[in-house]
Amino acid sequence: MNRSLRGLMAALVLAVPAGCGMTVAPDAGHAPVAQACRPAPGVIPAGLTPAATFAAVVARVEPVAEAACRERAPFADCDFLIVVDDRPDAPPNAFQTRDPATGRPVIAFTASLIRSAANADELAFVLGHEAAHHIAGHLDRQRDTAVAGAMVAGALAAALGQRDAGSLRTAQNIGATLGARTFSKDYELEADTGGTVIAWQAGFDPLRGAAFFDRMPDPGNQFLGTHPPNSARIDTVRRTLAVLEGGGRV
């Protein structure tokens, strides 16, 4: 994170009301679930620069995402590091990864995505979505399916007589790619659900935030594609939001 953004966040943390905690009474057969109270919406001042808007969103969403992480993934590292890639040629993008040295979860935004966001709700939804990937353990799950795909493809290639190192390596690479993509659409929809919950609990409008998809190329329902159709993603947000607004749990 660059120094100017860090300073903006420090100032805005003081201006943005902190979230509160509550324990929801358990349903039959379920343990009590600690959830963040939903703050009043509309706390991000209008007319801020894109960087200041993003800093305000981070100040509001990050503690909610970390609370959700501690609740749903108690053995995970929930100390998110949120960084900005300010390279002028970096296209609009956001992704979740880990610091290779420490294992700390990292959420990265490019500056071009921050500038292209139409409002704070879009930034909050994207941030919640990327945090939800970590909470659901998608990196590890994707790695496991990639390894399994590589093993199966390598064994099949060997059984078919392709025993030279180059052929086996090619088969394993193809298998790993297919394995990694097997559940990628499901992971995206699962992260959309989690992102909706996090953005809503932080006081933002996830459906307004999901309008971000309307400006993205629609991947449709491609065979072995990595992302589901935009319509499916918006439907997921809409259904999740209806449950939350009705007082239900997701």
How large a portion of the residues is in β-strands, by DSSP E? 5-15%
Q: Structural class of the helix and strand makeup?
A: mainly alpha
- Average pLDDT across residues? 74
Instruction: Flag low-confidence runs.
Output: 1-36, 146-158, 171-183, 221-225
Shape: globular
> What is the H/E order?
HEEHEEEHHHHHHH
Please count the beta strands (DSSP E, at least 2 residues each).
5
| Fraction in helix | 40-55%
Radius of gyration over alpha carbons?
A: 20 Å
User: How many domain regions?
Assistant: 1
Question: If helices are DSSP runs of H or I spanning 4 or more residues, what is the number of helices?
Answer: 9
Amino- and carboxy-terminal Cα gap: 32 Å
Give the strand order of the largest sheet, numbering strands 1, 2, ... along the chain.
Answer: 3-5-4
What can be said about the biggest beta sheet? 3 strands, mixed
Task: Note down, in words, how this protein is organized.
- 54% of the residues lie in helices and 10% in strands.
- The protein is mainly alpha-helical and 250 residues long.
- The chain has one domain.
- A hairpin with a 6-residue loop joins strand 4 and strand 5.
- Helix 1 packs across helix 2 and helix 4 packs across helix 7.
List the helices and strands and how they pair.
Elements: H1 3-15, E1 21-24, E2 33-36, H2 50-72, E3 81-85, E4 94-98, E5 105-110, H3 111-116, H4 120-135, H5 138-159, H6 165-182, H7 184-201, H8 206-209, H9 230-245
Parallel strand pairs: 3-5
Antiparallel strand pairs: 1-2, 4-5
